[in-house]
Amino acid sequence: MFAETIETDRLLLRRLRASDAQAGFERYASDPEATRFLRWRTHQSAVETEEFYRQAERDWDAGVTHVWAVCLREEGMPEKLKPWGAISLLPVLAQAELGYVISRRQWGRGVATEAARAVIAEAWRHPTIWRVSATCNVRNAGSARVLEKCGMRLEGTLRSRYMQPQAGPRPQDVLQWAIVRDDLPADASTG
């Protein structure tokens, strides 16, 4: 459904693949701080990351979830780029849910915002998608700022919504963010 490769000024977003597992493990999946507010546990081995990535490949093929590796174009030839994070869209009926994780080494550089804007733009290429949403833990100010910079509006707080293993043993409160096709300038909403 979605493009396997998306390019921005600084980034190459390409379909995540199992061969990315070692770099993904080292750069973000094993980092408790980078994964602090995710719905999956911090990975303890590259094998765990590889299993996760293989499932992402199967999900892409099935049209369930689309996960892109977030790569920095400045690091060389496209086929050799390794991920500094991952970003996903989960399409459900007329909407798509956005999610992402970025290596701490790339925080504060605009990587998450640039990747999210590109993936949201990709969603708008599909006329059946009318809403792109995302959630972030109420304590995750950095992620909230990324979503705001992408043009999303804060819709409210969902209490005890998701288990986020690193954030504690109870379901966490999250902020619900969204942008709808009607929020776009007339020339941008046609895809």
UniProtKB/TrEMBL annotation:
Keyword S-adenosyl-L-methionine: no
Coiled coil: none
Tagged with keyword Transport: no
Keyword terms of this UniProt record: Transferase
Top-level taxon of the source organism: Bacteria
InterPro entries cross-referenced by the UniProt entry: Acyl_CoA_acyltransferase (IPR016181), GNAT_dom (IPR000182), N-acetyltransferase (IPR051531)
A single MF term (Gene Ontology): acyltransferase activity, transferring groups other than amino-acyl groups
The N-acetyltransferase domain, residue ranges: 11-175
Pfam families the record matches: Acetyltransf_3 (PF13302)
Name recorded for this polypeptide: Ribosomal-protein-L7/L12-serine acetyltransferase
